[in-house]
Specification:
The protein is an alpha/beta fold. The chain has 21 helices and 25 strands. Strands 17, 18, 19, 20, 21, 22, 23, 24 and 25 form a 9-stranded mixed β-sheet that branches. Helix 9 crosses helix 11, helix 11 runs parallel beside helix 16 and helix 19 runs antiparallel to helix 20. Bound molecules: 3,4-dihydroxybenzoic acid (DHB) and magnesium ion. 3,4-dihydroxybenzoic acid binds next to strand 3, strand 4 and helix 8. It is an enzyme of class 4 (lyase). Its cofactor is a divalent metal cation. This is 3-dehydroshikimate dehydratase.
């Protein structure tokens, strides 16, 4: 699989873009003409820089407003083309993209356009250049790949072919299977982009909201299956116009791009096994069974505060690590580790973020297989030398630098609690918590798509639609990702004064901002928490009046909710109860939830009230209440 990415897809100077693209492992770049013009390099220098990075120029683009013009525009278009072909010869690339015309004078007419391309083909041939015709979704006469193909077919010239772009086909809801009838050798190039399902003007949508395959809602897999079914074997090139990416970190965006292509091709080969996919074999995505433990990195000084919160939540100290200063806290099936090591990764995490969730361990069907898959999808391996008689648990770095450990019940790893830990107490029932319902991870909004792609590509996972959550100081975007028993809510902070934004600032980067534990009886749990002085988040009276009216709830139930500060939501499948702790000074908090029936959400309608309540704690001393 030869991979490529358009220079418009990432931020930085031309030199920075090249470095990021090469580091991420691409084979080539599409040079977007504007990027070239804006640079200070001669065409020959650009060509050399690209090749010095081990890359090739897969495409030069775009050449606009060519076909179907009357004179004198037509002659001008040919003169322009001749100049660009000279430029391409100096750059050292042989393929140009002509996008369908939006020129006000363009006359259309399939045969007129085909004749123009046939003549352009002769000019191109004399320069050793090939021309690919792409239907822009908003093209004046050609805005559908089927019409672009008909023009190319009638031009009948070996230097004239078709360029497909998933956005233009899928954005117009054209059935991608219509590609299957095009001969693969006439498809000169394939551009890939996804996009979120937003109903808006096609041009604006395309130029600002495209994202990496798998990050949006278009059926890029179906598109790619159809492309490969034709026998096409040329480059797969990302062409992502996205405002966020243009302002983002070039290396992160480039790496996400490469990951998205690997993940896409893996989905294609598993859903269409008969098409050849040039990608090394690696294990299939598997669902996560459960979160086996969560580890906090802290210090000897800060640990008592964290442990007091755990005790108030019904956890009891149940053991310690055989060789490291790590204590095990347990209740029901939930394991929490508190690591006060003053060396190693946990310490680095603590120094960087303060007390923080530094590791999450997942139980999967086959830990080594998931680990191999994650590495194939460009995750970073994590190894920290342990004692010889301890387990070597496979691990990878998460996007923000925390660690994901992988365990399974079919190998030696199942013995983690008896090999690596000495337990000194039986598990207590505590406050009735039975598991980890979900983890809330908070990050800068720019990084949110990266995280979603990371989880959704490595695990067999589903993404829920993104929702906007109103914080009194700005919007937070939230997206849930679920893989079997692992549920993660990603919260992207756009505004710095939001609860999420402050957490990112306070803790210096993205991390777990809250842990939601599951219970089967939230009122019984609430009563036990009250006995333990759990720092319960106080919810305003107005909320209960509203929720009773909104859902027509039994006043007796609402009275219990009001007393226990329990929030409520429901969907078509069932009911949901939740309560929260007050936030710690850095903004970290706990949640306890009870799902009834098949409720699928996370109580998003309650988030504005919960956030407002939490912010009352965060107000600096002496600030007036508004
Ligand atoms: O938005 C555009 O004009 C534009 C240009 C070139 C392309 O390949 C494309 O897909 C869109
Ligand atoms: Mg395109």
């Amino acid at each position: 699989m030869k991979t490529s990415i358009a220079t418009v897809s990432i931020s930085g100077t031309f030199a920075e873009k090249l470095a990021a693209i090469a580091t991420a492992g691409f084979d080539g770049i599409e040079i977007f003409e504007q990027d070239f013009i804006a640079s200070d390099f001669t065409p020959a220098e650009v060509g050399r820089m690209v090749r010095d990075h081990g890359l090739e120029i897969t495409l030069f683009q775009p050449f606009r407003d060519f076909e179907g013009l009357p004179e004198p525009h037509r002659s001008r278009a040919f003169a322009r083309a001749a100049r660009k072909f000279d430029l391409m010869n100096q750059l050292g690339t042989d393929l140009v993209l002509v996008c369908s015309s939006v020129h006000p004078a363009a006359m259309g007419g399939i045969d007129r356009m085909a004749a123009d391309f046939a003549e352009l083909g002769d000019l191109a041939q004399s320069h050793g250049i090939r021309v690919g015709f792409e239907a822009l979704a908003w093209g004046r006469h050609v805005n559908d790949h089927r019409d672009a193909w008909e023009v190319v077919r009638r031009a009948d010239h070996q230097n004239i072919g078709l360029i497909l772009d998933s956005f233009h086909t899928l954005g117009r809801k054209i059935d991608p299977d219509t590609i299957r009838r095009i001969p693969g050798d006439k498809i000169f190039f394939v551009q890939l982009a996804d996009a979120p399902a937003i109903d808006m003007d096609l041009l604006y949508w395309s130029r600002h909201f495209r994202n990496m395959p798998g990050e949006g809602d278009l059926d890029v897999t179906g598109f790619m299956r159809a492309v490969l079914a034709t026998g096409y074997s040329g480059p797969l090139s990302l062409e992502i116009f996205n405002d966020q990416f243009r302002a983002g970190l070039p290396r992160l965006v480039a790496q996400d791009g490469h990951r998205s292509l690997i993940s896409l091709m893996d989905r294609v080969r598993r859903s269409e096994p008969t098409v050849p996919v040039a990608l090394p074999e690696f294990p299939a995505a598997a669902p996560v069974e459960r979160v086996e433990f969560i580890e906090f990195a802290t210090s000897a000084e800060d640990a008592p505060g964290l442990e007091a919160l755990l005790a108030a939540t019904g956890f009891a100290r149940a053991g310690s690590h055989v060789s490291k200063p790590v204590t095990l806290w347990r209740q029901g099936g939930v394991n929490v580790l508190v690591n006060t090591d003053s060396t190693g990764f946990a310490h680095t995490s603590f120094v960087a973020h303060g007390t923080t969730v530094s590791e999450v361990a997942l139980m999967v069907p086959d830990a080594q297989a998931t680990h191999a898959r994650a590495l194939a999808l460009l995750a970073r391996d994590h190894r920290q030398p342990g004692q010889p008689d301890e387990l070597e648990i496979p691990a990878i770095r998460g996007v923000g630098g925390s660690i994901l450990r992988l365990l399974d019940s079919g190998s030696d790893l199942a013995r983690i609690w008896s090999v690596d830990f000495r337990s000194d107490a039986a598990a207590l029932e505590g406050a009735g918590l039975t598991g980890i319902d979900h983890l809330g991870q908070t990050m800068a909004y720019d990084e949110m798509l990266s995280w979603a792609l990371f989880y959704a590509s490595i695990f067999d996972a589903k993404k829920a639609p993104m929702v906007d959550v109103a914080d009194p100081d700005g919007l937070v975007r939230s997206q849930a990702v679920q893989s079997g028993g692992l549920r993660i809510t990603l919260n992207g902070a756009e505004a710095r004064r939001t609860l999420a934004g402050r957490f990112v600032e306070e803790t210096f980067g993205a991390s777990v901002q809250h842990i939601a534990f599951a219970t089967v009886d939230i009122f019984a749990t609430a009563a036990r928490l009250a006995e333990r002085d759990f720092p319960l988040l106080q919810i305003g009276e107005n909320y209960y009046d509203d929720v009773e009216a909104r859902f027509g709830l039994d006043p007796a139930l609402v009275a219990r909710m009001r007393a226990a500060k329990v929030l409520y939501d429901e969907d078509a499948g069932g009911q949901f109860f939740q309560l929260y702790s007050a936030p710690r000074p850095d903004g970290f908090f706990l949640e306890i939830v009870q799902r009834q029936g098949n409720y699928l959400g996370y109580g998003a309608p309650n988030a504005p009230f919960r956030i407002a309540a939490q912010k009352r704690y965060a107000r600096p001393a002496g600030m007036p209440r508004l």
